[in-house]
Amino acid sequence: MGLRNDPPEDIRIRPMVAGDIREVLTIASDAFLTPWTEQMFMKELRLSFSRNFVAVAGQGAPGPVAGYITFWVIADEVQLHSMAVRRELRRKGAATRLFLAMLRDALEQGAETGTLEVRRSNEAARGFYEKFGWRVTARRPSYYSDTGEDALIMSAELKACSEVFRHA
């Protein structure tokens, strides 16, 4: 299983800090019907089991935040909670780098499985996750309160995703 394009070298992943929240909020507001609030992101930064990374574009001096990912690693499972990329920087490798960072971090912490929820209508996101070996395993009817849309639960055995690392 190979990725369509290798992520460019000028996208770096680093831990999210409070100073990133303003840019993260802009990205989330553009990407989601009901984006997370500043308080929600700040809470994630304080939780010991919450992991939060940003993708930063550009060589040398820190560039703009291109995207972010927030996930939990609890026991042997990683749970993806939120991921988005700045609209004008989409399809340039930031999401791939963020997702791979999550997988690596989760494996290093002993996670064996992963889960996430995605809107049934979000075919682009589902296709992205499927590239990494994630599959729809369940459905939550009327999960999203803003539209009443179903959530699809996608899951993966993380070791089965290891083939992706050879292509990143």
Could you outline the blueprint of secondary structure elements for this entry?
Layout (H helix, E strand, L loop, with lengths): L10 E5 L5 H11 L6 H9 L3 E8 L7 E10 L2 E9 L8 H15 L4 E7 L3 H9 L3 E6 L10 E7 L4 H4 L3
Parallel strand pairs: 4-5
Antiparallel strand pairs: 1-2, 2-3, 3-4, 5-7, 6-7
Order of helices and strands: EHHEEEHEHEEH
Which structural class do the helices and strands define? Answer: alpha+beta
Overall structural domain count: 1
Helix share of residues? 25-40%
CATH architecture: 3-Layer(aba) Sandwich
Which percent band covers the strand fraction? 25-35%
* Low-pLDDT sequence parts: 1-7
Which CATH first-tier class would you pick? Alpha Beta
Within the largest sheet, what's the order of strands? 1-2-3-4-5-7-6
What CATH calls the topology is Aminopeptidase
Total count of helical runs of at least 4 residues: 5
Mind telling me the C-alpha Rg?
Answer: 15 Å
Give a verbal description of the structure.
With 168 residues, the chain is an alpha+beta fold. It has one domain: Gcn5-related N-acetyltransferase (GNAT) (Aminopeptidase, 3-Layer(aba) Sandwich). Helices cover 29% and strands 31% of the residues. It has helices spanning 21-31, 38-46, 94-108, 123-131, 162-165, and strands at 11-15, 50-57, 65-74, 77-85, 113-119, 135-140, 151-157. The chain has a seven-stranded mixed beta sheet, sandwiched between helices. Strand 3 and strand 4 form a beta hairpin. It is globular.
